[in-house]
Specification:
125 residues; alpha+beta; two-stranded antiparallel ribbon
Length: 125
C-alpha cells in the first residue's frame, strides 16, 4: 500500500547562489558529509546539490511533514548504490518517523539538467 508520494523541482542556479553566499554553513546544515564529498567531486557540484535538495523536499512531502516538525534535512541522506542507483538513508527524526509510521520501503528517482533538478519519492507501507 502506498503511504505517500512526494515530488520536488529545484532551480540549480538558486542552489549555486545560496552556496556562494553561505558556503560551508549552508552545506553542513543541509547535507551529510557523504553528500558533500560526493557532490564536491563534480565540476558543477551545485547541480548535484540541487538534486539531493530536491530529494529531501520530496521526502518531506511524501510524509506530509514540513521542516521544523521533528525532521531535519541533514537526517535525509541520498546514497548511491555501487550500480549508481540512488537510495535513501534516514537518521534521527526522519528514521523515527519512517519506522513509527510503519513505512517498509522507499523508492527514489532523481533527474537533473543544467537548469533544474527533480526528485520523486514514493513510500510504501
Amino acid at each position: 500500500m502506498i503511504y505517500g508520494v512526494g515530488i520536488d523541482l529545484v532551480e540549480n542556479d538558486r542552489i549555486e547562489k545560496i552556496i556562494q553566499k553561505w558556503g560551508e554553513k549552508f552545506l553542513c546544515r543541509v547535507f551529510s558529509d557523504r553528500e558533500i564529498e560526493y557532490c564536491g567531486r563534480h565540476a558543477q557540484a551545485h547541480i548535484h546539490y540541487g538534486a539531493r535538495f530536491a530529494v529531501k523536499e520530496a521526502f518531506l512531502k511524501a510524509i506530509s511533514l514540513g521542516l521544523g516538525r521533528g525532521v531535519r534535512l541533514q537526517e535525509i541522506e541520498v546514497v548511491n548504490e555501487p550500480s549508481g542507483q540512488p537510495t535513501l538513508m534516514l537518521y534521527g527524526g526522519a528514521q523515527d518517523f519512517y519506522q513509527g509510521a510503519g513505512i517498509t520501503s522507499a523508492y527514489l528517482s532523481i533527474t537533473h539538467t543544467k537548469k533544474y533538478a527533480s526528485a520523486l519519492v514514493l513510500l510504501e507501507k
